[in-house]
Amino acid sequence: MRRRLRRIAIISAALASTGLVVFGAPSAEATSSVIYNGGFEDGESGWMDSWSVIGSSPHHHAINNGLRYRSHTGTWKAELGGEGFGGYGFYGQQSISRTVTLDPKTSYVLSYWLYVTPRTAGFRQLEVTASVDGQVYQLDYRTNKDANTGYERVQVHLPQDLVSTTEKRVKISFVAKEDDVNTSPFLIDDVALFPVEGS
Q1: Do strands 48-53 and 92-102 pair parallel, antiparallel, or not at all (unpaired)?
Q2: What per-residue confidence (pLDDT) applies to 93?
Q3: What's the whole-model pTM score?
Q4: Which end of the chain is more exposed for a tag (fewer CB within 10 A), N or C?
């Protein structure tokens, strides 16, 4: 069962270069993120990179420091999809994910910077999910229609169903799907998960 959650405080109007940010849940940032290596500066450490393709494997690692696309901060970022065209034979999906432990009786806000690169050809979509015990919750959903000109911040509350009297192990996933001609990736950087104070 999937539940689409309304995105909150979506998207800063400024690019990364301006340093301007719209905070949807400012109280969440008073404490540290529970996600290690959310900026990917330690490469794939703590993250799982996977793909499902027909044909050859992806030409690039999802988490990389390649020069074709810039990161939001540092030199590393996640680059999902964008290989449907050019003879690499990649179509299907590419994803990154990691599992985190949520404290009892605590709400959380997921924060990340997203760049939906301008569309060139084909179709693509990005789905951000939280899953636990076979239940999948959709946190965010993007397509070609959401293309922008640079990194923008996204913040969304994890569903109240994940607030429990005991610890919960939750898998956070970013999954890009595309057809066989798409050449435009989704770029993700500076992923964080903050407990909300007073929750």
Answers
A1: antiparallel
A2: 85
A3: 0.82
A4: N
